[in-house]
Amino acid sequence: MHVQRSISLIQKLATAEPYNLGFSGGKDSVVILDLAKRAGVKFNAIYAITTIDPPGTTSFIKKNYPEVNIIRPEKTFFQIVEEKGLPSRTRRFCCEKLKEKYGIGNRSIEGMRKEESPKRELYEY
Hints:
The protein is α/β, with parallel strands linked by helices. Helix content is 41%, strand content 12%. It has helices at 2-13, 27-39, 57-64, 77-84, 93-98, 118-121; strands at 19-22, 43-48, 69-71, 108-109. Strand 2 (43-48), helix 3 (57-64) and strand 3 (69-71) form a beta-alpha-beta unit.
């Protein structure tokens, strides 16, 4: 039921421009990639290396999800911290520099679970 509803929503909101899928190799990303494929819509799946990724993540993605574009940042996480200091919940420059900039101007599909936080539990699914 939820799967077909998700596929229908992805198809309904599709345009000529491809969706942007932020891919991490985790279970939410794998589900979103599968839903986009099943929906038959255009999409670009992107894994933006943060330089502090768990070991083996990049090789796992290359081996199992070759359609995912792997992007290396201009600066490492530690170089950014040297310039700007440590990130926090309100100072999210590291996400902006290492991950979010690759989706600017594009519509995106994101995977979220209610169980992840009280705030997400309030979202309508």
